[in-house]
């Protein structure tokens, strides 16, 4: 199985929230699991003020080296726009959901309610 980590999961991981730490560490420990993040998540990770702190920046960099980034291409952008239009979800969430759908990935999130109306999206809620 392959997973796309939502931004909130990474933030919770860096903050030491036990369910996020356990889930991500378990995924990274299993060589059979592919762990990916959208480039949207990468941008969101560096948009927070905590990324200015040297230690926090190091934590971000280390984890991002352990996962595979996924680009947003035109097809994902179109699907993301459609998801925003049809379901009223935030654009960043729509692009992340579209990325998961396009690549057949399960979206790992702590905000399943943001995505619950999106058909064909596999969600793994770790709340």
Written overview of the protein:
This protein has 127 residues and is an alpha/beta fold. It has a single domain (2-125), classed as 5'-nuclease (Rossmann fold). Helices cover 55% and strands 16% of the residues. The protein contains six helices and five strands. It has helices at 7-15, 18-29, 39-47, 54-66, 74-87, 91-103; strands at residues 2-5, 34-38, 68-70, 106-109, 122-125. The chain has a five-stranded parallel β-sheet with strand order 3-2-1-4-5, with helices on both faces. Helix 1 (7-15) packs across helix 2 (18-29) and helix 5 (74-87) packs across helix 6 (91-103). The longest helix is centred in the middle third of the chain and has 14 residues, at 74-87. The chain is globular. The mean pLDDT is 92.
Describe this structure in a few short sentences.
With 127 residues, the chain is of the alpha/beta class.
């Amino acid at each position: 199985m392959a997973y796309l980590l939502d931004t909130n999961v990474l933030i919770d991981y860096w903050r030491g929230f036990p369910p996020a730490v356990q889930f991500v560490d378990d995924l990274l420990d299993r060589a059979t699991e592919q762990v990916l993040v959208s480039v949207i998540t990468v941008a969101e990770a560096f948009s927070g003020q905590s990324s200015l702190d040297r230690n926090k920046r190091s934590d971000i960099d280390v984890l991002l080296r352990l996962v595979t980034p996924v680009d947003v291409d035109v097809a994902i952008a179109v699907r993301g726009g459609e998801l925003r239009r049809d379901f009223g979800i935030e654009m960043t969430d729509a692009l992340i959901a579209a990325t998961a759908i396009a690549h057949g990935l399960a979206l790992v999130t702590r905000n399943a309610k943001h995505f619950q109306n999106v058909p064909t999206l596999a969600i793994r809620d770790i709340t």
